[in-house]
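Question: Send over one sample?
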Amino acid sequence: MKLQDLVRYDQSLKFIHNPEWPEEILAISALDAPTEKSIVFVKNSKFLNRLKEKSDEIALLKVGAIIDEKFFSGVSPEDKILLQKLPWLATSSNTPLCLTTLSKPFYEMKFRGMNSQVDGRQMGTTEIHPTALISQNVFIGENVKIGVNVEILPGAVILPNVEIGDNTKIYSNVTVYPFTKIGRSCRIHSGTAIGADGFGYTFHQGQHHKIWHMGGVEISNDVEIGTNTSIDQGTFSPTKIGAGTRIDNLVQIAHNCKIGKGCIICGQVGLAGSVTLEDFVVIGGQAAIGPDAHIGMGTQIGGKAGVMEGAVWPAGSKIAGFPARDLREWLRGLALTKKLAEK
């Protein structure tokens, strides 16, 4: 897509710098994982700070930016100079809606021509190691790569452009969406779905407009995932599950989550979008973690706790309750409530 093609989707776009940039735009990318010749979106100071942290990498990758028009008017002169070092720069009157609108054509570009109807083994487009054990009634899409001693049980659906590492076992009725990477020695139990669209919408003029997700999922080595768990793909960069993590049944992991190594996530836990768990976090059953929360290494979260949106907990925390707070504080509150009830 050319730069001027963007105006067909958002007529409020105003090019601030280099409107005649001649090269193709290949994708939308996230600021934490920019890709070559892509677009990043800057809607407030949080996103601007992320861009500044990655400014050298972004410039090298020829990444342009669309920035909120009102926010840009208040940006410091120094930051405006920095922004105009990008290959191109535009403003939008409604940045969330612009991102939503542009996500669809880029999604269509990525998935155009993908064949999810004919098994890749018939098409001759799969790479399956001779030692892999594939049951009857398994669908394997085009361009799938399956490693040594992989076992896939009946009813599993492996859609195009998936990679499955050596010694991994996929149980019955698992669905793996396109652009998912699963590492070595993993176990994925029945009914789990990996790579479905994230639950992302922009509300505008009485309608919820879909944000089209295309970031995929990356699961590292030695991960076990229980039955009927959902792991949504990232919006523009992958949702990630670290090595050695254990995920129980009926867990929801939303788009853009980053799960570290050796985490334990018990049954019916829900992680909202863009949650970060550092290594060896333990989460008790039915706990809920709000969007953009950041949980430090080794933190323990009690069952049914509610971690609020954007909360940051340092390494080694022990938290419980709703809203989640330090475990000792929560226990003192329970003791006080009991005493008051007895009186």
Notes: The mean pLDDT is 95. The first helix runs from residue 45 to 53. The domain at 3-111 is CATH 3.40.1390.10 (Udp-n-acetylmuramoylalanyl-d-glutamate--2,6- Diaminopimelate Ligase; Chain: A, domain 1). Helices lie at 45-53, 55-60, 69-73, 77-83, 95-111, 120-123, 327-342.
